[in-house]
Amino acid sequence: MTREPAREAATASVHAKFSQLARRDTAPELAVRRALHASGLRYRVEYPMPGAPRRRIDVAFPRQKLAVLIDGCFWHGCPEHRKPPARNSSWWDWKRATNEARDRDTDAKLREEGWRVLRIWEHVEPAQAVEMVRSALAEPSLGSPKPGSGML
């Protein structure tokens, strides 16, 4: 089955447009990272995800095994700000569903590796994100060594 030339051109132009979008260092990520750093927290950026080498953790605290993922409202289906595009809505529904399924799979894989996962929507204020991270870091992790075990 062949596509119509106009459809192919539109698809190629859409592909070219989306391939230029930032995959890392987005404005919300940078704002949260600046706030975390200003509050004295140190972390790793774009940390390779254990068990899934093609995926990355936006902000990682490897010693505490805390993965912080900053999700865009449009791409990840924020319940507050989800606004489906008027054109090609069936494709966009599929795309968002695919992203959400990948998010769930990422969470499951990280938890299998002993990590805790904190997802923060892009609309969350950076100061609130810092409090969320600090709260998560204060919780005892499931995989941490017992006191006196000699393990660090």
Task: Please give the share of residues in helix.
Answer: 40-55%
Task: Assign the CATH topology.
Answer: Endonuclease, Chain A
- The Rg value, from CA coordinates, equals 19 Å
Largest sheet, in brief, is: 4 strands, mixed
Unreliable residue runs: 1-9, 144-152
Count of alpha and pi helical runs: 5
Overall form: globular
For the biggest β-sheet, the strand order reads: 1-2-3-4
GO molecular function, one term: endonuclease activity
Family: Belongs to the Vsr family.
Pfam families: Vsr (PF03852)
Protein name: Very short patch repair endonuclease
What does this structure look like?
With 152 residues, this protein is α+β, with helices and mostly antiparallel strands. 45% of the residues lie in helices and 18% in strands. It has five helices and four strands. It has helices spanning 5-19, 27-38, 73-76, 89-112, 126-138; strands at 44-49, 52-61, 66-71, 116-121. The protein has a four-stranded mixed β-sheet, sandwiched between helices. Strand 2 (52-61) and strand 3 form a beta hairpin. Mean pLDDT is 82; it is low at 1-9 and 144-152.
Topology:
Blueprint: H1 5-19, H2 27-38, E1 44-49, E2 52-61, E3 66-71, H3 73-76, H4 89-112, E4 116-121, H5 126-138
Parallel strand pairs: 3-4
Antiparallel strand pairs: 1-2, 2-3
